[in-house]
Amino acid sequence: MRHQYHHKKILRPFTSVILFLFSVITLSSCGSQPQPEGLDPAVLIVDGVPTEPSYIMTIDGHQISLGEYRFYYFFAKDQMDQGDDSYWNQSDSDRKQQELKNLTMQTLKSSYAIREMADQLQLSLTDTERDQIDSDVKNQIATLGGNDNYQKALNKKYLNDRLYRQIWETNFCRQKLWSYYFDEGGPLYISDDAVSNDEKQTSYSSLFAQMLATARDDLTIRLRPEYELISIDTLQ
Question: What domains are defined for the chain?
């Protein structure tokens, strides 16, 4: 079903988080989250025993591994506490941890919603764009001094090569959606010359936020029982 959107401001928090997420992932920099030398399999500590669920949820039938979830979780944690672990030891810790899970879920859903929106419009990546991803990976490997260092840099972000490339693909999908709707000739392009460029961009951002929120709501999420066990203390 094609949704109709009107030109009005609808501001929603974190609706552009995927673009922000991609922009801050620079493999040569270090974040404030724990920095493992090697990326161990994601585990949940249950009653002191590490467990490795094969996946933690499905989004429209796509199985989300605990490892993929862990990346988004620790990224969101880093944004919330800015490297200060005492942030989670205050009286409102339970509320903050629930907010962390909510932010993680919204970011994860946004990623899949963007790709679903692009797929519905048959906006697939071109060979040139895929070559650009390959080129970036090769440049990262060269800059970091070899594949081993590239893998270590990914590990520091709780990433692997597949997920790093997936974030690239999501960003391309977002760009394609923006161009489809808001470039000249697009269905939501504002042709009124009396409207300033800044006003147009503000309107476009609000419209995209609305569309993304609707796409997120349309996703079918099925949580496995292990999801309820996830916390800062149990996810490793």
Answer: 17-229 (1.10.4030)
